[in-house]
Amino acid sequence: MRLPKFLNLRSIRLQLLVAYVIALLLAAVAAGLMFFILFVWRAEGPVRKGLPLQAEWIADAIVYDASGRPLRLDQQRNSPWIYASIPDDLKYAVLDSAGTVLFSSENTRKAFVPPGLTFFQLPPLVRLQMAGIPMDLMTFSVRKGEAIHYIQVARSERLHLLIRNAIGWPMLKTAILVGVACLLLFVAVVYITLHCSLQTLDEASEAAARIAPANLSTRLDTSNLPSEVAPLVEAFNKALDRLERGYRIQQEFLAGAAHELKTPLALIRAQIELNGAADRTSLLSDVDMMARQVHQLLHLAEVSETHNYKFEPVSLAEVASEVTGYLVRLADLHQVSLQLQNRMADDYLVSADRSAVFIMLKNLIENAIRHAGAGGTVTVALDEAEVYVEDGGAGIAEADFPKLFARFWRGPERRDDGAGLGLAICHQIAVTHGWTIDARNALPGARFTLHLVQNHESGKSAVIDGAAL
Q1: Under a CB-based contact definition with an 8 Å cutoff, are residues 445 and 372 in contact?
Q2: Cα(123)–Cα(256) distance, rounded to whole angstroms?
Q3: pLDDT one-digit tens code per residue, 136-168
């Protein structure tokens, strides 16, 4: 059984809600535990917190004379009725530097001192009996200018118990109930907020699920998405752009390949059906043309995939020498002279796929041989900035320059039975290597130039990963 989206453990709603609830619970538990420790569990906690506060109230209400000697409490700033209402449970006394009582809630001149101790022997906190009632007593020293005086404050244990039982526990229980109610309200508000915020993401997910090859042009709307999610959806839309472009190219490629293979197949079939006889030479010619086209199609498919490349330090001079040696018989057949001009250093290397570079130079030189004309010369020149192949033919018509590297394009006066993929293959290999390739008329003939862009190294070096280029 499939769980609801909200109950999915990988749901961002559930994760955020659980994180918020846990944080709120931890804060509530910490606050409750602190309250419990200070006011309920430890008996001396309220004493150590309450008595200093009580002493501060008294110190703030003391009226001094010109010499800094305490005279009395300011009735407007103190609450003497508290001490008058529960004199047996709350007491105070103000003493001079000699330990003599100046005024107190008891109207006595004696300091609060347990039996067996003097005033100056008192510890910071002491428990004693006053009129048979257990009391907690604290003594504080106060400096006023150069003079020093003391404040004693006392509170009964039963008052502490009253505060704990009548105020502490009820406050703790009330805080727990209020905390639970706030937690439920918080959960509801957070859930509604997350649901509304992520509703647009759900809609985008449903729209993405409906995208198929038939509607690759569809894009996800990012106008109402949260700002944190919008970049992800925008990146997805850009990926769809690349996917659609690649899909269209593949469709055009398949259509072009089918069209190119359809004609020779029709010719072969017609020759076979023509009275049951066939011209063997014509059939072999058509088969050779189809084989060449299929071979070029395979080459183009291979060089279009980056993962098929193996980048390593390669000497372009060595590869060019191998290619010219390989094509010398084709040049002789067309009565064309091949010239290799190498101006590269012996240790000059480029990071490249050797077999791909071989195919690229082979296509460029072979194309130049077929257009040079009988008695012409094909020049292959290399230096550390560029490689160019130049023929001495008739050149390229201005209207044909934009079409040179298009797939399946062949000139109106083509001199061979190729598939029109050779230059497209060269362009794809150059792009994958980070190079650029262009063509221009050299008068006479045409020149194809391969520009090596920031992709070279000298001497022996490590193999460079092609995926990083």
Answers
A1: yes
A2: 102
A3: 899 999 988 788 899 999 988 888 777 777 666
- Cα 440 → chain centroid: 45
Are the beta carbons of 392 and 445 closer than 8 angstroms? yes
Angstrom distance (rounded) from CA 226 to CA 78 = 57
Q: How far from 432 is each of 187, 350, 468, 469, CA to CA, in Å?
A: 54, 14, 11, 8
Q: Where are the beta strands (DSSP E) in 228-336?
A: 312-314
Which ranges of the chain have pLDDT less than 50? 1-3, 43, 415, 454-469
Residues 6+ apart with CB under 8 A from 306: 432, 466, 467
Cβ–Cβ < 8 Å for 316, 360 = no
- Closest C-alpha to 289, from 446, 373, 410: 410
Label the pairing between strands 456-458 and 337-342: unpaired
Long-range contacts: 113-119, Cβ < 8 Å, 24+?
Answer: 119/95
Burial of 259 (0-12, 13-18, 19+ CB in 10 A): exposed
What global pTM score does this model have?
Answer: 0.47
Residues 6, 18: Cα–Cα separation, whole Å: 12
Angle between helices 169-209 and 12-36 (to 10 degrees): 170
Show the tokens assigned to 88: 């047996």
Is the distance from CB of 446 to CB of 396 less than 8 angstroms?
yes
Alpha helices per DSSP H over 403-457: 422-433
Tell me if residue 360 falls in helix, strand or coil.
helix
In sequence order, what are the residues at sequence separation of 6 or more whose Cβ sits closer than 8 angstroms to the Cβ of residue 131? 88
User: Looking up tokens 């390593």, which residue turns up?
Assistant: 312
Taking only the tens place, the pLDDT of each residue in 317-360 is 999 999 999 888 888 988 999 999 998 888 889 888 888 888 88
